[in-house]
Amino acid sequence: MHWLLDAWIGTQTWLFETFVSPVLFHFNLMEWFDDAFDAVEFFMLGVVQILVIALLMRPLEKRRPMENVKNRRLPAVDRVYTVLSKLGVVPLVVFVIAYPITNEIELQMRGLGIAPPRIESLMPWLHDHPLVTFLIYFALYDFAAYWIHRAQHGFSWWWALHSLHHSQREVTAWTDDRNHVLDSLLVTLVLVIFSQSVGVQPGDYVSILMVGRLIESWSHANVDLGFGRIGDRLLVGPRFHRLHHALGTPAEPRIYDHNYALVFPLWDMLFGTARYDRKARPMGVEDPAIDADNDLGWLGQQVAGFRRFAAAILPRLAG
Amino acid sequence: MKKFAFALLALSASVTTAQAESIIVLNSEDASYSILDRATRMEVQRLPLGREPHHLILTPNGKEVLLASTFTNELVALDTRTLERRYVVRDIIDPYQLGFSPDGKWMVTAANRLDHVDIYQTDGYKLAGRIFLDSIPSHIAFDAASRTTFVTLQESGRVAALDLATQTIKWNVEVGKAPAGIVMLPDDKRLLVALTGEESVLTVDPKDGSVIGRLPTGKAAHNFRVKDNRYYFLSNRVGSTVSLIDTQEMKVVASIKVPGGPDDMDITPDGKELWVTQRFLRRIAIIDIAEMKMIGSVRVGKSPHGLIILKTDPAAVPNKLRSASIEPSPK
Ligand SMILES: [Zn+2]
Fold first, then answer.
1. A202 touching B (Cβ < 8 Å)
2. What pLDDT shows up at residue A319?
3. Distances (CA, A) of A110 to A103, A194, A233, A309, B331
4. What's the domain count of chain B?
5. How far apart are alpha carbons A314 and B136 in whole angstroms?
6. CA-based nearest residue in chain A for residue B325
7. How many angstroms is it from A252 CA to the middle of ligand 1?
């Protein structure tokens, strides 16, 4: 395993020293030197994730689809979302806006001498079990993500943005990153503030993001495969999450208000929102105004999503 | 059980030499520190520490080394002979860099994220004064008389001189892009300041902060380590080199490639090797000083930053150091 780690760090260092560090040095941005190095790793993880989707998940979607693909053109825009997100373009925009806010919170807390305790300091035996520690932080993070997701469906103004993620009629492994930029910003803000207060440290993010995002891409894949009766209750898979993307019908109105969990179905089982079945259903949102997203490209969808958001929030402001 | 352990320790003591050299490395992004053995060039143990540990320093009496965790606002004191944890000093806010005045009376910390410099009385680590400075205070130096401390301010490109007894600003002068490492030369008349935003080292007058000289070195000149009264090592983070500076002639007499954003350095007690943290490569480079050649590197944790080389007593160092149950601070 050492050679793999060496190759990974060697590549990261080469990319950084060749492309990033000269730019930082030239523009006198040296205070970002070490953070930018970590950003290169984020970029590399994105490349790996794109490769896993393209080379492993897509062939499986072709071999064992859960639903027959009716319109092969529709997933194309989701690839744009995936590339923009996984290679760091959207995260960079989100970071530039979110950083001053989360940084100010961090500085205020630190100025008061408040350092959120790490779980290891409360349970020292965890120091000898890094995998258990990782799972605890992963679960905490996913727990927060579950409740954010419920809010995305529960508040009409947030659903106005999040419905863009649901409007895709052909959900594939590329769909995970199909999000409104403002939605990503809000989710990031809440998750970072949550992480700050429970003591998730930057080092944990790398593994949480890598493992978590791969599971989320997989859970969107149009693949009729499960992890078995027990496995499907331990980890979110396509059968579980595609029900969350199913089109509402008179018989099953707002069926997408189930199976919110991103990684661990436990939260849905605990809070009564889990639903297990293997029926193949059409995907999308029944509201024609939202379904119209399917005729738009990346920019068009962003504009449409923002209009819906403004319409949902303005009456509130006026009233 | 205890007797058995003692017997084992005695046995291991009889087969090893009476003294060993251990290197403590702070893995800043792993919240841990590594203990390396100089002879075998191996990582012996890796132990948890508070979040974002960056620098470490010997106490004035040399009995302990303080490992500073910036996020958890604490200094963990290790016994320099046995490497066991002795105590923890808490409520030292954002201790990024830290330094003791030559007379040992003052401890100065630079709060890198919170933009202030704190002056503590070493006795009891009592805060004497907090001075807010704009912005990103990083490295610290002192005059020989222990009256003044000098702090570089990376983001605003300045160096500030603070009076230790009154905790007031003597001067605060702009010098160049991203000043980081700072040392007072033995003559007590010249400060060397490394410019991380440029490719040079400045000579600065400690009386008023005026720049009296400039020496081109490598890209992103960053950190110093004294070799002897005359020669200083300097790490260049973008250039990925370590330069050897003759401070009498004010010229670079040697330069050696050290890949991976070299940062902090220390010299072995026999003066033969320079150990350098390679921040990006998660390694410590070993340089043969006579040959000015890199002769090896040791794998450590993520983003290794500060390091120190200690003479330890192998018979007294426990095989597995305790990671938890730390005694409260004596203060
Ligand atoms: Zn949803």
1. yes
2. 57
3. 10, 16, 40, 35, 22
4. 1
5. 41
6. A124
7. 16
Cα–Cα distance, B162 to B148 (Å, whole number)? 6
> Does A110 contact chain B (CB < 8 Å)?
yes
Task: Report the residue of chain A nearest B155, measured CA to CA.
Answer: A31
B1 domain residue, yes or no: no
Residue whose tokens read 């203990």: B35
Contact present, A235 and A215 (Cβ < 8 Å): yes
Instruction: Decide if B240 touches A, using CB distance below 8 A.
Output: yes
Q: Considering the domain boundaries, does residue B89 fall inside one?
A: yes
Q: Mapping DSSP to helix (H, G, I), strand (E, B) and coil, where does residue B33 land?
A: strand
CA A221 to ligand 1 centroid distance, Å:
15
Shortest CA gap B18–chain A (Å): 31
CA of A46 to the centre of ligand 1 (A): 22
| Digit-coded pLDDT (tens) for A248-302 | 889 988 899 999 999 999 999 999 999 998 888 899 999 999 999 999 999 999 9
Domain assignment of residue B46, given as a range: 20-321
Per DSSP, the residues of A146-198 read: HHHHHHHHHSHHHHHHHHHHH--SS--TTGGG---HHHHHHHHHHHHHHHHHH
Burial-class residue A221 by CB neighbours within 10 Å (0-12, 13-18, 19+): buried
For residue B328, what pLDDT is reported? 37
Closest alpha carbon within chain B to A25: B197
Give the pLDDT of residue B116. 92
Cα(A261) to centroid(ligand 1), Å: 9
Give the CATH number for residue B92. Answer: 2.130.10.10
- Chain B environment of A13 (Cβ under 8 Å): 259-261, 280-281
Neighboring chain B residues of A42 at a CB cutoff of 8 Å: none
Within a domain: B241: yes
pLDDT mean across residues, chain A:
90
Residue B298: name the closest of B316, B275, B321 by CA: B275
CA distance B103 to B56: 19
In tens, the pLDDT along B269-317 reads 999 999 999 999 999 999 999 999 999 999 999 999 999 999 998 777 7
What is the ipTM, given to two decimal places? 0.82
Average confidence (pLDDT) over B101-112: 95
Confidence check: pLDDT of B176 > 70: yes
- Which helix (H) or strand (E) segment holds residue B179: the answer is strand B179-184
Residue B73 with chain A: CB contacts under 8 Å: 110, 113, 115
The SS3 call for residue B213 is: strand
Comparing CB atoms, the residue among B48, B196, B323 nearest residue A30 is: B196
Q: Name the token pair of B193.
A: 């300041």
A76-91 pLDDT per residue, tens: 999 999 999 999 888 8
Give A262 Cα–ligand 1 centroid separation in angstroms: 9
